[in-house]
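Let us walk through a complete example step by step. Step one is to write down the protein sequence. Step two is to encode the small molecule, zinc ion, as a SMILES string so that its atoms and bonds are unambiguous. Step three, shown after the inputs, is the structure prediction itself.
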Amino acid sequence: MRRLKLVFALLAIIAQSFAAQPDRTVVIISWDGGKPSVMQKLVKEGKLPTVKALLSEGSYSWNAQTIVPSSTLPSHTSMVTGVTVQRHGVTWNDKFRENEGFVKVPTIFELAKKAGLKTAMVFSKSKLKQFAKPQTLDAEEYVGGDADKVAKVAVKVIEEVKPNLMLVHFSDPDSAGHGYGWGNEKEGVLPSREFLESLQRCDKATGEIVNALKRNGRWQRALVIVTADHGGHNKTHGSADPEDVNIPWIAAGGLAERNGELKQQIKTMDTAATALAALGLNVPDDWDGKPVWAALKDGGKVSMNGKKLPIVAEWKGNHCGITEPKQIVITDAKEWAEIWKQVHRGKIPVPKVPDIDFNKNMVLAVFMGQKPTSGYAIQITEVARSNGEVFAKLKETAPTKGAIVLQVLTQPFHIVVVPKVDAKVRFVE
Ligand SMILES: [Zn+2]
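Step three: the predicted structure of the complex.
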């Protein structure tokens, strides 16, 4: 009997680490035409208080990228399917084309629904129906109107339907941009007053949604992503120009890591992947989008519900023969000998290659690349398996401003041996 109990307990743990998390909420809030450079300026002027608060408690980029064409329907389709326009095939932007049928690739709503989670879409342009496939949404609300009206319906859906995954779409900035202008940075044209006001309306409406999550006790287990489908210049958009393609990407809420500005390049497809990862769902391997792990608490999974792998041996140093940044997984003796030789290039004699039983173990090696001085370091701080993957958490350090450093070239590295796991390894920063 006791043994049976133990088996059940183990089964419960396994089930938990692979299952969708029904107590979590992910809300993607898309400001249609929300140009990041203008938003950033308004934040500095204290005119977007909601965004300002989200920035201070989450992770963000003002330099995320949408697809080309940088237009509403193709871009939002990439945002919710995790793949490029070439793969999802929704190339048009005029309207919901019934004759084309719903988007052919899976949407995040579809995948979340399959995992038993609740989904919702509240949107203010009817063409977004193109990816609102039948039976994939518990609530589908088209609201023709401004951000304030959309937010009211979104709050009602949050309270009554309690979705785990939701897209909220405000069209105000796009309308104001087409009508009065996004501005043009290269030509020194300022954004129109109407455009600035539309962003302030979106900020207030976003605040209503954040407050609803807090009021309903869902904020601690929530991830809110504020982003956009495109920016704009003059009274148009759609091109590959950075003013059109750059989008904001701000992640906050209890499931977000407080990492501030992220240096990595975020793409709009990553929004889909990050949403699934935050819900504890597997991200399809062939997606163009990857989860922005740095924006998720504890790298998403590591130490949250993962099983730690012990580090059985390690080598660390500031000088090696590998001068490019690199993260590698080594699973056989031949490859290991080759890497060992490269690491010790220039050393006479090269130390003997340590014996590793690759039937039982594998090697994870990270190289920081060549640095101009001492004071840099890279470290694998933790390795864990979770959700069918192995996560290696990285910590990189650089000399602080004013620190005394040696004027020598360094190539920091860290190599660890961990038990072999037949799964994909992700290096998480
Ligand atoms: Zn537009």
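Step four is interpretation. Residues 33, 72, 174, 178, 237 surround zinc ion (CB under 6 Å).
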